[in-house]
Design goal:
Blueprint: E1 7-13, H1 18-25, H2 27-30, E2 32-40, H3 47-52, E3 57-61, H4 66-80, E4 84-88, H5 95-100, E5 105-109, H6 121-128, E6 132-139, E7 149-156, H7 163-186, E8 190-192, E9 198-200, E10 210-211
Parallel strand pairs: 1-2, 1-4, 2-3, 4-5
Antiparallel strand pairs: 5-6, 6-7, 7-10, 8-9
Helix pairs in contact: 1-7
Length: 218
């Protein structure tokens, strides 16, 4: 059962922020309180006003000075102390931030990890000629794209796919999975087993294309 207290959630966004916008739109359904948005210079220009208009604190940082960027990101997250931080971010968080928010940072990766870790996950999926691609949401640790996997969505790769056509189908699976994962955290159902793997209590692991299976929002 969902706690009365909302999950205070920070977001770090590099692009258009589609998943962030979806989470804000459904925050009542998934039980989160969007508290902080960290952007970089290339992030969509309207995100500052979008967030501020909804009472969400915003920081837009220039990553060209990497040392200053790392200090600013770490300070913002450590000062805010969100219950969860969700990344759709092209920047690697500094180890100080990861250590300070252990088990409280998740990342969205556009491939089925451990395959195609790192950058350009969609392009590398298509170039490899695999027949099934997908997306992964995982816990962030110091090693890039190596943290415990929380959920994955499988997407068929069609012979004539390009980045846009495949990416559209991928997003159709990714958005509901992302919202579901946030809701599981809000419900306190995301735990670690004895081997350090992430397990969602009460979730179904026997159904594709999204594992654990999506659940209806009541």
């Amino acid at each position: 059962m969902r706690s009365e207290r909302r999950l205070r959630t920070a977001f770090c966004v590099s692009g258009h922020g589609s998943l962030f916008r979806a989470a804000v739109a459904r925050c009542d359904d998934i039980g989160i309180e969007p508290a902080l948005l960290i952007l970089e210079t290339k992030s969509a220009a309207d995100l500052d006003d979008f967030a501020r208009g909804r009472g969400i604190a915003v920081m837009r940082l220039d990553p060209r000075d990497r040392a200053a960027f790392d200090v600013a990101v770490t300070k913002a997250l450590v000062d805010e102390q969100p219950d969860l931080t969700a990344l759709t971010f092209d920047r690697i968080l500094p180890a100080t931030a990861v250590d300070a928010l252990r088990h409280r940072i998740i990342n969205v990766h556009p491939a089925l990890l451990p395959a195609f870790a790192g950058t350009r996950g969609i392009e590398r999926t298509l170039a490899a000629g695999v027949k099934v691609g997908g997306a992964t949401i995982h816990e962030v640790i110091a090693e890039v794209d190596a943290g415990p996997i929380i959920a994955q969505a499988a997407v068929e790769v069609l012979p004539n796919d390009d980045v846009l056509s495949y990416g559209r189908r991928l997003y159709e699976r990714l958005e509901p999975m992302f919202l579901q994962v946030l809701r599981w955290f809000a419900e306190g159902r995301v735990v670690h087993d004895a081997a350090g793997r992430v397990v969602v209590r009460g979730a179904r692991y026997d159904s594709l294309p999204v594992v654990p299976a999506l659940e209806p929002f009541s």
